[in-house]
Every structure is written in structure tokens, then in C-alpha cells.
Amino acid sequence: MTSTFQTFLFKLLLYVALIVITTLAFLPDYDALPPIVSFSDLLNHTVAFFTLYLLMYLAHPKLQAIHSTTLLLIYGIFIELVQYFLPTRVASWSDVVADSFGLILGFIIITLYSKIKQTK
């Protein structure tokens, strides 16, 4: 696979993930989803934002970590702000904390991977 095609593929995956996560965030009856999706809201947030961070890194490799983190954190806060105004959803700062934990985890994994890759 060429680098250009890989970048395109990761961008596509990133945008699909953003659409899926946004859709799930605004569903009126989140608890009606299968248990595999709705069993732990905070874990879901952590995994989702960890995945988004990795995809952002792969889709936009020249983007600095602080910019990726900031953009994704703003996205997480945006979701909570919209949920505040939805009658069937509840905004929660603990969700933003879980989002942040996922972003930090993604940053740590990418940093460790980069250091291991440099030593080879």
C-alpha cells in the first residue's frame, strides 16, 4: 500500500468513526442498544476517544499531538453540550474526563510506539 492510500484510508476511517460516535451520542434511547454497546458508558468514552486519537494520528501524521488532543477534546465537550439540550440524554463531566483519559492513553501509546520505532 502506498503512503498516500494509507493516509486516505485512515482519514476515511476517522470520519466514519466520528459519524458513528456522533450518532451514538445523540440517539434518544442509548440504553436500548445491545449490551455490548451500552454496558459501560465511561469505558465506551475512553475506548472511543482512544480510537479517535489513534486514527487522528494515522490520518494526519503531521498534526502536532497538542492540536489533535485539543480538537478531539473540543469534540467531546461539544457532544456533552448538545446532550445537555436533548430531552432524552444527560450531559456529564465524567464523560469528558473519560474522553480525556482515552486521549491521554492514545498519546502514551503513540509516544511509546514512536520511541520503540526510533530505536530500531
Q: What can be said about this structure in brief?
A:
With 120 residues, this protein is mainly α. It has 5 helices and no strands.
Give the SSE layout.
Blueprint: H1 3-26, H2 35-38, H3 41-59, H4 65-85, H5 93-119
Percentage of residues in DSSP E strands: under 5%
Number of strands: 0
Q: What is the alpha-carbon Rg in Å?
A: 15 Å
Number of domains: 1
**What global shape is seen?**
elongated
One letter per element, helices H and strands E, the order comes to HHHHH
Task: Report the total helices.
Answer: 5
Low-pLDDT stretches are none
State the end-to-end distance: 22 Å
Mean pLDDT over the residues? 91
Largest sheet: none
Query: What structural category arises from helix and sheet content?
Result: mainly alpha
The portion of residues assigned to helices is over 70%
Description:
It is elongated and about 50 Å long. The chain starts with a helix and ends with a helix. It has one domain. It has helices spanning 3-26, 35-38, 41-59, 65-85, 93-119. Helices cover 79% and strands 0% of the residues. The mean pLDDT is 91. Helix 1 packs antiparallel against helix 3 (41-59), helix 3 (41-59) packs across helix 5 and helix 4 packs antiparallel against helix 5. With 120 residues, the chain is mainly alpha-helical.
Q: Key features?
A:
mainly alpha, 120 residues, 5 helices, 0% strand
